[in-house]
Automatic annotation (TrEMBL):
This is Peptide methionine sulfoxide reductase MsrA. GO terms for molecular function: L-methionine:thioredoxin-disulfide S-oxidoreductase activity; peptide-methionine (S)-S-oxide reductase activity. It comes from Patiriisocius marinus. It comes from the Bacteria. The active site is at residue 13. The gene is msrA.
Amino acid sequence: MSNYKKAYIAGGCFWGMEDLFRTQSGIKDTEVGYQGGENDNPTYKYHPGHAEGIELTYDPSETNFREILDYFFRIHNPTTVDQQGNDKGSSYRSAIFYQNNEEKKIAEEMIELVNQSGKWDDKVVTTLEPYSTFWQAEENHQDYLVKNPNGYTCHFLRFEDSYIKN
């Protein structure tokens, strides 16, 4: 476990993203929470400026940051400002919280690949934000769609094909 890394992303309601990422190769753990906002100890009812995000713990011998972002850009709409499906507001923005310059560079390259792909009618509006404290959401939000299999989600695999050309 000491070799595991973490990635921080937001792409709308955290329930759906968590549910899809948990099944991906190399993903060892998922946590939903709040990031990039104005207050400490945010809650579901009060998280001004925070995005609903996920913390992904991954094994770099099985996957990498680029592959995580490739999947991220295939399971949500990165071209809508502050919206995913019926969810609207800055909590539902598309964001990558980079931890270092290497992650920022990879994120910029992935955004360029997504824009060049022609898969979306509009350009990517995903924000690149420096890592800030990830505040774990309340327990009832963790693994929500496992606990509530018929719960709401606006996330699904939109494109089978990877943006990354090997």
